[in-house]
Each structure stands twice: as structure tokens, then as C-alpha cells.
Amino acid sequence: MREPAIGVVGATGLVGQELLELFEKRTPFTIDKLSARTFALDKSYDFLFLATPSPISKEIVSLAKEKTGCIIDLSSAHRNDPTVPLIIPEINGYLLEKNPALIASPNCTATILLLPLAPLHRLYTIKKIIASSYQAASGAGALGLKELLHNEPPSIFPHPYAYNVFLHESPRSQDNFCEEEEKVIFETRKILEEPRLPINIRCVRVPVERAHSLSINVIFERPPKEAARILEESSGLLYHPSPTPRYAEKRDEVLWGSLRQDSTDPCGLDLWVCGDQLLKGAALNAFQIFDKLSSQIKTCL
Ligand SMILES: NC(=O)c1ccc[n+]([C@@H]2O[C@H](COP(=O)([O-])OP(=O)(O)OC[C@H]3O[C@@H](n4cnc5c(N)ncnc54)[C@H](OP(=O)(O)O)[C@@H]3O)[C@@H](O)[C@H]2O)c1
Known about the structure:
By secondary structure, this protein is of the alpha/beta class. Helices cover 33% and strands 23% of the residues. Helix 1 packs across helix 9 and helix 4 (108-124) runs parallel beside helix 6 (179-192). 43% of the residues are buried.
């Protein structure tokens, strides 16, 4: 059996760096570090990760798809395409059994929201989700983190970042969600296979380096009596008595806590979660997709 040929495009970025570290620590494989700026596919890859902005991912997919076994795209470029599976292995990893040639890894906020909600949905059926996110600067990539830490221009945010809290982006009109909120809504519905699920979300930037938090209110069809036990038993989650981004950073698991019954509805729950958006929200999720696929196709390599 030969070693799989693996490349990461966008290897200099925050997500690309995390992916390289995961491969270095958890596999014996060597990885080609590729730059999107000088991209020329002179070799065939079994797995090609795209940790690049969406327009760049789109271009690379059209250039690389013929010569690549499987492309795992971390950008939003292909998430809305109904023919492209949008995968969180713990939730819908079974879709990988068809060995898709192009896979999208979801938005980081959607992933951290879904990890606790999907197992509860299976049992109690979600009727409605209302959530607010508290998103870290590194969610906006290397430039976002630099701006929080060093207040360096060019500014990529609409407001001063340090010591401040502000809406993720301006909505296109007063009645609309902003782009990040639209991504969370669309991707949550796609992954749960519930195209009309009512979801209301407000995405907010907070002066945190790493790890997104979410305050979640969720209403089910039935009273979620065993919710704590289900969360305890679900993979990718870890109970914490007081989750914070600092406790969640550099951890594989999404931390959950402060679970309580909704005081207005016996079928409702309040939950607080924190998850490292560079890991489970991005690089780790893509790595787990690779891990599952590579064990499926081991015999073919
Ligand atoms: N950050 C997160 O928490 C997170 C979570 C989930 C998904 N994602 C997605 O993952 C992707 C990478 O995000 P990131 O946070 O790693 O961003 P980043 O730190 O800004 O890195 C972006 C990477 O793309 C390259 N790049 C940027 N602009 C380019 C251009 N015009 N032409 C060619 N290459 C270009 C950069 O290369 P240079 O070094 O040469 O500039 C760098 O390697 C994005 O699509 C993002 O939406 C990010």
C-alpha cells in the first residue's frame, strides 16, 4: 500500500497552519504545502485541502478536479451546491460512503451550533432555534487576529476591535440577516436535512483570539428529558461546568454547559457552548473527513 499524496493550498493561513500541525502530530504522512498565488497542479493528489478564500477555492476546484482523488474545501464556495456534501463526520459522516470527489467543510459557527443540536434533534425533533454567537477574531483569518492583537491597519472590521463588541457585518438591508448569519441558517438546515427549519441567529464579534461561543435556545416537539445524558454520550462534545473560549481553545471537543430548561416552554432548552473554530470549526473537521475517507479507500491506494 502506498502513502497517499496530500496537498494543502493556503498553507500559510491560520486554517492551513492548523491542518499541517494536525497531520504532523497525528499521521506519518508528508504534506505538500501549496500556495494559491503560484498554483500550478503539476502532480496528481489523492487528497487536496483548500484553505483559501472562496473565489480562490472556486478557481482551484475547476483547475484541479480532473487530477485529484478528493478535494476537501474549507471555504464557503461549494457549500450551497446541492450536489456537494457538507460534512460534519459525527453528524452526517455516512455521506462519505459514496466517496465524493468534492466535499465542503461547514462554516465554523454552524459546526459549533450543530454538534450539540444534531443528537438532540434525532431524539426530540427541533421545532425552532434562536441563537447568538460570540465570535473570535481569528475567525476572520490572519488579518483579523492581527487587528485584534496589534490594532494594525488595514482594518478589515467596521469598528475598532480591541475592548469592543460589534455585529459580525452589516446586513444588506434592515430586515435581512448578514452573510455569516445566512451561512449558519442555510448550512444548519442542509446538514440536518430540514430545509424549512425556523432559525433566528445574531452573529457578534468579541475581542477573543480564538474559539467561538454560542448562546442557544432550542424548542423541540417533545420535552427533552434526557438532554444532559445525550450530550454527555455524544462524540465531539465535552461537559464543562463553565465553558469559556479560553478553556475551549486548542481542544478537539466543543465544550457545553449551563444547560437549563426554558422557563417559558417545557419543550425548550437553553445551552451555552464554546468551541475552537480553527479546530472543530475548520481544520480538525476537514482532517476527520480525510481520516474517515482514507480508512474507507485504504485498500485502493
Ligand atoms: N479562520 C477560521 O476560523 C475559519 C473557519 C472555517 C472556515 N474558514 C475558511 O477557511 C479559509 C481559510 O481561512 P483562514 O482563516 O486560514 O484565512 P487566512 O489566515 O487569511 O489565510 C488565507 C490563505 O489563503 C491565501 N490567500 C489569501 N488571499 C489570496 C489571494 N488573493 N490569492 C491567493 N491566495 C490567497 C493566503 O495566502 P498568503 O499567505 O500568500 O496571503 C493564505 O494562505 C477561508 O475560506 C475561510 O472562510 C476559516
